[in-house]
Every structure is written in C-alpha cells, then in structure tokens.
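Quick illustration, no need to memorize.
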Amino acid sequence: MNAVLHPGVMLVGEALVDEFAEQPVAGGAPLNVARSLAALGVPATLVSRLGVSQHLGPGTGASAADAGARLVLASLRRFGLDERGLQFDTAHATGRVSVVEEGGTHAFHIHPDAAWDHLDGAAARALLQARPPAVLYFGSLAQRAPASRAAIQALLQDARRLRCLRYLDLNLREGCMEPALVAGSLAQADWLKLNDPELLQVHQWFGSGPLDPLQPAPQLQPAVQALMRRFGVQRLILTRGAAGYACFGARGEVLAEGTGQQDLTLVDTVGAGDAFSAMTLAAHLRGLDIAHALHLANGYAAAICGQRGPIPDKDPFFQPWQQALAQAGVATA
C-alpha cells in the first residue's frame, strides 16, 4: 500500500482524569505524550473516547462532555491538538485514576469500565487510513477490555500495511498485566520503550534465566536480543531512572546509552516516561540520530520531574526544548 505518510504522530489509548489529593488533572500516557509533542512542534492526533452526560441521546459530543471530559478537552485545546480522533460515549464515563502519593512514589487505582475501554475501531481505522501518520503510538493499558483491544489491534495491522512506525510504550499498569495481552502488543511493535521493572517482568514471562535490568547495557544484550527476535522488535529503548538509559538495535547491539541526571530536582515522577517518549519521537521525526534523540529525551524527562504533574502549567517551560530541537535539526541538515 503506497500511502503518503504525514509528518506527525497518532496516539491511541486512554485519556482520563488523574485524581490527585489537591485537584484533578487531565492525564493518561497517550494524552501526556500528545501534549508534549504538540508543545515541541510535532503534529499529534489523539484517538480516545470520552464520556458525555448519560441522559443525552446518541450523536452528542463535546458540547455535552462530562466533567472529566471537559478537563481533557480544555487541556487538548490549550496545546492546539487535533480533536478528530475523539469519540464520545453516552453509556460510559471518562476514565478516572485515583493517585495516592507514598514517600515520594505514587500508587494508582485505575477505575474500570471507562469510555476509553469502548473505542470504536471503525472510526479509528477510517481516520488512520485517511491521513496516515509517520508514527502510531500505543500502549498496553488501553487494551485491557475486549472492545478497545480489538480496535487497537486492527489499527496496528492497518499501520503495518501503511508502513507507519509502530511505537509501543509498554506502561504496564493494573488491568493489563496479562502475558497474552503483552505478547500481542510486542508482536505489533516496531519500536519498544519500557523501564527496568517492565523489562524484568517481560523477561520473566518470555525469557529464561536470571536478569538484572540495572547491570551495564552490554551485559543485557543476550536477553534483549532473544526478546527482540522472538517478537520482531526493531529497536528497544530501556529507561532506568538514576541508572540512565540504553537503546538496542534489531540484533540486540547497543546503539546508545547514557547516565541518569545527577542534578535532578525532583517534585514527582508522574509523566516522566511519557516525556521521554515524546522527546524521542520529536527528535526522531526531526532526523536526529538515536544517541542525540535519547540524550535530549533524558534531559526533558528529568525536567518534567521538576514540575508538578505530567505536564507543566507554564508555556515558557517548553521554550528551551523547542530551541534545542531546532538547533539540533539545523546541525543535522
């Protein structure tokens, strides 16, 4: 299929409300990544499903959004994101996550049967085929329910035929810890991004022998190579917090690695992994090599950790990162 790819990212999955103790905020990994991409100058389209007031009939949309959906829509519009991928559901409310902070870490309770568990696959596929993106981003959580899992899997098959880069940000969470679900996602990924606990879990499911995901990157090569060969992954990006990051090529070879940020100002880590993915994709689409892209991603994720919540409230936060991308793009040209 010789489709013309557009220079942006389509992100499919959960858009929801993170209920912090002080206030609710719009969240969900695909939304977090989409907002950062938009702030960094990359066109992004979010495919998700939001709730509307249940007493209203079919055909209602943004004008009848429930309270959670209004938060999501306000944030989408602040960043100028494309709304064509949004779906509206009169039977299911916008998703919610209760966030509990414990000693600098966060525990999440993801409420069941949300609007994003009921994605309309036909609508999503029509949008993908009408305007194929350079990258299709997906995760595992949005596949916890049968309807959305089927919709996302069909969308990924279309993306393969259209030659879109399929980027899996694994994001293992409550509700998506099934080996079969994860295996199905890995088999659809061109690029895989995961953190060290996720690598350990995936290795326990699909690998053999002991594994310490914090050991030097070259020592991880045999396990990583076996995993990538099994599922046909072309690139694996591993984030390891203070231990830094590493990227492996299709044969398991180390393509890039770096240390963690030593001067990190930590407010919270919510959205750090999403920020890493966003900058990685933004830099890739600018034509940067993977080492430079991941160096920027590491710095950007650390900067997000110095802010409250998954995305900063102040636009000036993004300006140095926009400039860094622009300068890197000029140097690459």
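The radius of gyration is 19 Å.
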